[in-house]
Specification:
The strands form three sheets. Strands 1, 4, 5, 6, 7, 8, 9 and 14 form an eight-stranded mixed sheet that branches. The chain starts with a strand and ends in an 8-residue tail after the last strand. By secondary structure, the protein is an alpha+beta fold. The chain has a single domain, classed as Ribosomal Protein S5, domain 2 (2-Layer Sandwich). About 35% of the residues lie in helices and about 25% in strands. The chain binds ligand DP6. The site of ligand DP6 has 13 residues, from helix 4.
Length: about 325
């Protein structure tokens, strides 16, 4: 039996990953840039065990059906194939989120699984190797190997596609992200299916790709200059452009709900009142607001008029992946 355990934090992209050029290897169409956060993380243990006759995936103590297990078993198959392991595995994942509001993330989940497998099989991987490996589980997971800001360099092969840390000289500790959990009701289209449909059918997709280099340059410049407004503006514009591509898909779709639009408008209003803050969204209706730590309380105060405290979740910059011993103490 081989066992390993790891903890990884989720990350939110400021410059989004949206579209693959290789579905099998998970090579992205464009570079992306994210902030790893402290408030949401996953702890995963894995045990490759000769007594198992199939993989088992437990999430928060509950055994999962094959639909939920798909990314996990695909990843375990990759591990078995790459490292000549012939055993099935039991995967035990715990999502640490401030509420049960569906904020589970494949970024933290698959990064933690990659770390746990590396630990179990004694692979002695560098962060770069681990980032490459996590990428094969879920693209965004490759950025969760690192704390603070990181950039996923798209590369052109399995070897050359991985994330690396961006040194912000501690500026990340002055930032916060406020999650606004809005009522869902929208039919779920996973990020994987959504980006595939967009790449294959959206007439707006080429415009998205054309804008990436400039957005990335601006974001990296803003980080180097510690220029919050510059970073916020490009974050908001890039997120809107990503969501714009879904409207040009066939059939068209959107992740926005009426409540998401309400939050976007409130953010614009709050900004007009002199408090700098900027929104971004992923493959779901929740809105994330980038704000300086010093303005977080004021921002929450404004929004408290419209949303309950359970709907407003604060996060700060978080650390990179940690490999744990099976008892839970840190190993590296
Ligand atoms: C909108 O990493 O979940 O959150 O690689 O297919 O597993 P797969 O997709 P995933 O996509 C994340 C998309 C996004 C933007 C981002 O995180 O960059």
């Amino acid at each position: 039996m081989y066992t390993g355990k790891a903890r990884a934090y989720t990350n939110i992209a400021l410059i989004k990953y949206w579209g693959k050029k290789d579905e099998q290897l998970i090579l992205p169409m464009n570079n992306s840039l994210s902030l790893t956060l402290d408030a949401f993380y996953t702890e995963t243990s894995v045990a490759f065990n000769e007594n198992l006759t199939e993989d088992q995936f437990f999430l928060d103590g509950m055994i999962q059906e094959s639909k939920q297990t798909k990314k996990v078993t695909a990843f375990l198959d990759l591990i078995r194939q790459t490292y000549q392991v012939e055993l099935f595995a039991k995967v035990d994942s715990q999502n640490f989120v401030p509420t049960a509001a569906g904020l589970a993330s494949s970024a933290s989940g698959l990064a933690a699984l990659a770390g746990a497998c590396a630990q179990a099989l004694n692979l002695n991987l560098t962060d770069t190797d681990l980032s490459r490996l996590a990428r094969r589980g879920s693209g965004s997971a490759c950025r969760s190997i690192f704390g603070g800001f990181s950039e996923w360099q798209k590369g052109s092969s399995d070897q050359t596609s991985f994330a690396r840390s961006i040194d912000a000289n501690g500026w990340e500790d002055e930032l916060a992200m406020l999650f606004v959990l809005v009522d869902d009701g929208v039919k779920d289209i996973s990020s994987r299916d959504g980006m595939r449909r967009t790449v294959e059918t959206s007439s707006f997709y080429s415009g998205w790709l054309d804008s990436i280099d400039a957005d990335l340059r601006t974001a990296k410049q803003a980080i180097a200059e510690k220029d919050f407004i510059k970073l916020g503006e490009v974050t908001e514009a890039n997120g809107l452009r990503m969501h714009g591509t879904t409207l040009g898909a066939v059939p068209p779709f959107t992740y926005w709900s009426p409540e998401s639009l309400k939050v976007m408008q409130l953010v614009r209003d709050i900004r007009k009142n002199g408090l700098p803050c900027y929104f971004t969204m992923d493959a779901g209706p929740n809105v994330k607001i980038l704000v300086e730590k010093k303005h977080l309380t004021a921002l929450k105060h404004f929004l408290a008029e419209y949303f309950s405290s359970e709907q407003l979740i604060s996060a700060y910059a978080g650390p990179g992946i940690t490999l744990l011993s099976m008892e839970g103490s840190e190993n590296s």
